[in-house]
Amino acid sequence: MHPLPEPASLPSLLLSSGGWRPEWGRTRAGGMSRAGGMRPPWNQERAPEERLPSATEPGRQWSMVRRMLTAGLLFSLLLGFSLLLVYIFRSCGPGPCMTPVCWDLLARYLASGNTSVAPCTDFFNFACGQAKGTDYSFQALAEENKKRLRRILEAPGSWHLGSGEEKAFQFYSSCMDTDAIEAAGAAPLRQVIEELGGWRISGNWTSLDFNRTLRLLMSQYGYFPFFRAYLRPRPTPPYTPVIQIDQPEFDVPLKQEKEQKIYAQLFQFLRPLEQRRAQGKLFQMVTIDQLQEMAPAIDWLSCLQATFTPMPLSPSQLLLVHDLEYLKNMSQLVEEQLSIHRDFLQSHMILGLVRTLSPALDSKFQEARRSLIQKLGELTERPPMPARPRWMKCVEETGTFFEPTLATLFVREAFSPSTQSAAMELFTAIKNALVSRLRRIPWMDEKTRKEAQNRVTQLQVKMGAPEWALKPSLARQEYNDVGPCPCQLLISPQLLLSPLTRLSGRQSVHPGRSLTNPFLALIQLGPSYLQSFLSCVRSLRARIVQSFLQSFPYHRWQVSPWGVNAYYSIPDHVVVFPAGLLQPPFFHPGYPRAVNFGAAGSIMAHELLHIFYQLLLPGGCPACDTRALQGALLCLKHHYETIPLPNGTFFNGSRTFLENAADIGGLAIALQAYSKRLLWHRGETILPNLDLSPQQLFFRSYAQVMCREPGTQEPQDPHSPPTLRVHGPLSNTPAFARYFHCPHGALMNPSSRCQLW
Fold first, then answer.
1. Would you say 666 and 88 are in contact if contact means Cβ atoms under 8 Å apart?
2. What contacts 24+ positions apart, CB below 8 Å, involve 110-116?
3. DSSP E strands: which ranges in 43-199?
4. CA–CA separation, 338 vs 153, rounded Å?
5. What pLDDT, on the 0 to 100 scale, is given for residue 554?
6. Residues 719-740: what's their mean pLDDT?
7. In 3-state terms, what secondary structure has residue 521?
8. Distance (Å, rounded) from C-alpha 241 to C-alpha 320?
9. Cβ contacts of 157 within 8 Å, gap of 6 or more
10. Contact 757, 664 (CB under 8 A)
11. What end-to-end distance do the CA atoms of the chain give, in Å?
12. Catalytic residue from among 663, 691, 709, 717
């Protein structure tokens, strides 16, 4: 037996048996030598320190591998995330709105704009360069709403007998029945003149008591020849209803010829509103007794009691008089005329009534009125008024007399619950933006700021139509005091030659409808259209008086639901946006958000700023930083005065500075609300083929609201000319210059701007 070898160490055994060799991982596969032969498993001639691997080398190797793998993984993640972002932004970016309402809006924008003009030089022409007189945005929208009412009134339907719907449709039909009106001729008017004592030029004239004639004109015909009287809330607290006496409205040439003597003398007594405001005499409160002493020619108690029945009046009844000096001079003039030219005074009153009633008479009277208006336009150098179609006048009169009925029908068709919800969502965004902006107004002290924010928070908003218009039962309100409208009788053609037919003079088919039986026809029976018109005048006045005598839990709307004017009511602290305003092209749930925020949103913000008008007036905010506020207002005044008008002149904005402030603030608030919307909501769209970004479309939509032909503005309009309403706010907005890339110093990118809001 051989002695057992001494125990060897584990490394020795592994090495001698050809086992684990750390260097294999660093040689080529198969252990081939560089010379191509099989290399021995171990190089016995290596230095001892090279025979065993270093303990740190494998860790260093794997650490490098891990770093490379980590770097590659991070690069892959970043690349994938970038691709994902690109995909998200491409898929959620502004795509074109391809719906019919967007194509219609695009057609409007292309028709009114002039893209050959540089937006940084003249953005008004860029947006409104092709707009003509009838293309005024608000006027065009009002006409669209009237067309909708026309479609409603001319649609066939069955209504409850004697209901508001039936009477409204009958009145409209009788207004459109020009054949019957022509056949009646001047006979209905002669009857009215005879009730008033006749007219010298008509042959039979009876000199009646002056105040009796005046009382009849006011109470039975709604005509006020020497002053206006109406029932409205007081303009100051407590805002209770009160009879108000105001200046008359003249529409005849004010020259010194004998025929216009009374008008000329009355006209010289009138004082402009600005003059009365400067004198601190916008209105005065007097009793009927006191007014009787100061203007004794008028029997005030008798005339007002007849006009405002069933409102009980007494000599101690308070009246709100807008121009007491005018009433004193008017009374003296009437007394002088009664003593020398009583017949002339009577003729003056009858002539004015005929002019008022001419729209309800045949074509000869209407043509005479058109000629008068044309002559007036020439004398006053005003542009001629375009002729309006008959249907539009009939729609307006039907809407005036039967508003409760038509309100329900209009809202049902034009202002769906989804439209109202979208409009309310827009208003909420605008209101929140205003509350946020109030925190940064530099001239407000902290107390005023908190009060202003509370005022906005507590504000009521009425949108679409009054509460009562949304109740179907009120659409069937019966107008018991409205007399019957001209009615038709269905007869056979043989009877058309009877004495009854010859007496009526009516041989036409009901307008807008066809007969299923060709052997039948319609003839006219009943009162004339003029009589129906006067019946509606009396009914409307009685309803107005009655509504003020009763407690009313809601805000009394000052516009019809199809109107296009928003307003803020100080007494009720409520802002009103009628359904007629929230229509294309100003608003539609399917429009790009940029359009709704730029158009309807800026209008909403403008009206909200009316809450703070008082703060901008001298002494309106004693606790505010007066120096900062006055500096901002002076900056605003200078800003508007440096923007040229189309004719090269400049505009004095002293009279319009409150509306200018609301225009600038309204645009800024709407832009802030829209920018926040873009940040937090996806799915923005733009108009196709217009090549405008969402922000550019926002500004384009704002300008579209102001589109109208320059020079067509009324002198008493409290707003600036349309070019200034566009250039003033937009040039004061840095974002406009940024998104349209306007060079520094251009009209729309001035060197300095104002910060009022």
1. no
2. 110/690, 111/135, 112/704, 112/707, 113/700
3. 95-96
4. 47
5. 76
6. 96
7. strand
8. 10
9. 165, 169
10. yes
11. 113
12. 663
How many angstroms separate the Cα of 683 from the Cα of each of 85, 86, 595, 675, 703? 15, 15, 14, 14, 24
- Using CA atoms, how far apart are residues 282 and 263, in angstroms rounded to an integer? 23
Cα distance between residue 307 and residue 681, in whole Å: 57
Q: In the block, which residue shows the tokens 């829209």?
A: 674
Question: Which alpha helices (H) appear in 281-362, and where do they start and end?
Answer: 288-294, 300-307, 324-340, 342-357
385-419 pLDDT, tens digit per residue, is 677 899 999 999 999 999 988 998 999 999 999 99
Extract the tokens encoding 44: 């016995």
Distance, CA of 159 to CA of 172 (rounded, Å): 14
Per-residue pLDDT tens for 51-103? 444 555 666 777 777 788 887 788 878 877 766 655 554 455 689 999 999 99
3-state secondary structure 75-96: HHHHHHHHHHHHHHHHHHCCEE
Find which of 70-74, 382-386, 484-488, 739-743 is predicted with most confidence, using mean pLDDT. 739-743
Token pair 């795509």 in the structure block, residue: 95
Which is nearest to 235 in space by CA: 282, 271, 280, 276? 282
- Residue 415 is predicted with a pLDDT of 95
| pLDDT one-digit tens code per residue, 124-134 | 999 998 876 54
Which tokens is 230 given?
């109406």
| pLDDT bracket for residue 507 (50, 70, 90) | very low
663 among known catalytic residues: yes
At residue 102, what is the residue type?
Answer: C
Between residues 261 and 169, which one has the greater pLDDT? 169
Using a cut of 0.85, tell me whether the model's pTM lies above it: no
Torsion of CA 230, 233, 238, 242, to 10 degrees: 20
Residue 367 pLDDT more than 80?
Answer: yes
Return d(Cα 438, Cα 450) in angstroms, integer: 9
CB 78 within 8 A of CB 70: no
Sheet holding 318-321, edge to edge: 228-233, 241-246, 318-321, 284-287
* Averaged pLDDT, 353-372: 87
3-state secondary structure of 144: helix
Q: Of 646, 583, 588, which Cα lies nearest the Cα of 138?
A: 583
**Catalytic, out of 122, 177, 403, 607:** 607
- 11: part of which helix (H) or strand (E)? helix 10-16
For the stretch 183-221, pLDDT in tens is: 999 999 988 988 888 776 666 666 668 999 999 999 999
3-state secondary structure of 487: strand
For 422, the token pair is 């979208």
CA distance 326 to 269: 5
Task: Give me the pLDDT at residue 250, please.
Answer: 64
Residue the block writes with tokens 């505009």 = 651
Quick one: tokens of 488? 């038709």
* DSSP-derived 3-state class of residue 636: helix
d(CA 171, CA 412): 21
Name which of 250-259, 364-373, 629-638 the model is least confident about: 250-259
104 given a catalytic annotation: no
